[in-house]
Design a protein that fits this description.
globular; 18 helices; mainly alpha; single chain; 490 residues
């Protein structure tokens, strides 16, 4: 391949990556806007204890869901040969594990209820566990959609899930179904996704089956299962500790405080990670291109997550009192700390995608295990200071883990820590300027209510945009050029 054709191929891939990110993020924003609206309504129809009961069930479901499909969806995306055999083998594994996990969930429900000392969890968890085989049924078609870089097509199932989940939950809560409205809404959302991906993917399993391919994807999946289990423990151990030690009401406050930062920051990382994985996988043989793509993704992730984290921390008191009422005031400090923690940890999300993309899941596995041990120790001490202590512990952990990931990426990709700092420095500097401006506004004007919240957000956006243009005009020009190029050929 000539230098010019190679450069053109890289340019086309980068443009396609931007287009895919737009569609993924468009569906994400639309869906999460609906989730936000439904959460505001549900917070007025339900009480903290009911959110807490649902939280107990979701913690346990998420641990089981890690085993769902045995990580074969990632194998379908990353594998570059024997595609039909891989999809068929993956489908067999997915269905087998989904059904098996549902049976396991049915029998362990009393144990989970006993752990949280909440008898209602038995029936709630058994019904909610239906989402496990449903998710397994749609895992291979969804993986094939992502593998084909058809992120525009993913808009329908993504938005469909949010509409079904939110509308069903609100209607049932309005009718007095309490916590059951959340459970049934969750199932309705997953059912819509499964139906949509089977229609969109236009894939059907065949009889072509290869035992060697089957063994290979199981080996690949085994590494990711280890990563998934430890990752789920890391992500959910705070919920587990809060629910077990502090009770359902505290978990309700913590869950709601986490909800908005999670929607705005963590889920953004997941969206970008889903797009980045197939693209970074394609670039795995070209080290220079891989480093270039990684650096660019890191820069643009920080441009969003840093101001989002600082901004949410600053508006948390006004936001919670305006939308959730004063009943939820104990969640204010928690939301502030979690927003900052997720902004910091956003820099550590892309390295995990890189480890999988270069077929080094064992690195992710080892790091996840080490992080789990440290997380357990830190949060086990932090919970002495109630939910605020747990949230502060999350901020400390995020800082520690990002530092580790920066060092590991430096060794695997020859992407120096100084390169990481250069990538994120424009966003960091502009975000600090924005924070200073918002604080000055709050001190001088003291905005209140919906109008005050709108004024604060608009001011923050304007200040941040101006600061980025001053701090790194090159970043703005480059982003504008890439975006225009992508939109012109969309």
């Amino acid at each position: 391949m000539s230098v010019s054709s190679d450069a053109e191929s890289r340019s086309n891939l980068s443009r396609l990556a931007v287009q895919s990110t737009f569609w993924s993020y468009g569906s994400f924003v639309s869906g999460k806007l609906l989730v936000f609206i439904s959460t505001v309504i549900l917070a007025r129809l339900l009480v903290p204890e009911q959110f807490g009961l649902m939280g107990f069930c979701l913690i346990a479901i998420q641990y089981l869901d890690v085993l769902n499909g045995f990580g074969v969806d990632s194998a379908v995306i990353s594998r570059r040969d024997r595609e039909e055999e891989t999809a068929n083998a993956a489908f067999v594994v997915a269905i087998a594990t989904g059904v098996s996990l549902f049976v396991i969930a049915w029998f362990i429900a009393p144990v989970i209820a006993a752990f949280f000392n909440e008898a209602q969890v038995v029936e709630l968890f058994r019904v909610l566990a239906i989402v496990i085989p449903l998710s397994a049924l749609g895992s291979v078609p969804m993986a094939l959609i992502q593998r084909g870089l058809r992120f525009k097509a993913k808009f329908i199932p993504d938005i469909g899930r949010s509409i079904a989940k939110g509308s069903v939950s609100i209607v049932l809560a309005w009718q007095g179904f309490g916590v059951w409205s959340l459970v049934i809404g969750q199932i309705a959302g997953e059912l819509v996704v499964v139906i949509a991906v089977w229609v969109i993917a236009r894939w059907r399993p065949t009889r072509r089956f290869d035992r060697e391919v089957f063994r290979q994807i199981l080996r690949y999946g085994a590494n990711l299962i280890g990563v998934g289990i430890t990752g789920a423990l890391i992500i959910n151990i705070d919920y587990l500790l809060v629910g077990k030690v502090l009770g359902a009401a505290a978990l309700g406050y913590y869950t709601l405080a986490y909800r908005i930062p999670e929607l705005a920051i963590r889920n953004t990382n997941f969206v970008i990670g889903r797009v980045a994985f197939p693209f970074l996988s394609r670039a795995q043989a070209d080290a220079d291109h891989l480093r270039s793509m990684y650096g660019s993704m890191l820069r643009y992730v920080a441009l969003f997550t840093f101001p989002a984290g600082l901004g949410l921390a600053l508006i948390a008191p006004l936001f919670i009192r305006t939308f959730y009422t004063e009943t939820w005031e104990p969640a204010i400090v928690v939301m502030q700390l979690i927003a900052l923690a997720l902004a910091v940890s956003s820099i550590g999300h892309l390295p995990g995608v890189v480890y999988k993309a270069i077929n080094r899941p064992e690195v992710l596995n080892k790091l996840s295990l080490a992080k789990l041990i440290v997380t357990t120790l830190v949060l086990g001490v932090a919970i002495r200071w109630d939910v605020e202590g747990v949230a502060a512990g999350q901020l400390l952990l995020a800082t520690m883990f990002v530092t580790v990931d920066v060092v590991v990426v430096a060794r695997l990709l020859s992407f120096a820590p100084s390169a990481t700092f250069r990538a994120i420095s424009p966003a960091l500097a502009a975000s600090l300027v924005m924070a200073a401006g918002v604080l000055a506004l709050q001190v001088t004007v003291g905005p209140a209510g919906v109008s005050g919240l709108v004024l604060t957000i608009v001011s923050a956006v304007v200040i941040y945009a101006g600061a980025v243009s001053i701090v790194s005009r090159e970043t703005v020009i480059r982003a504008r050029t890439v975006v225009r190029s992508a939109l012109a050929r969309a």
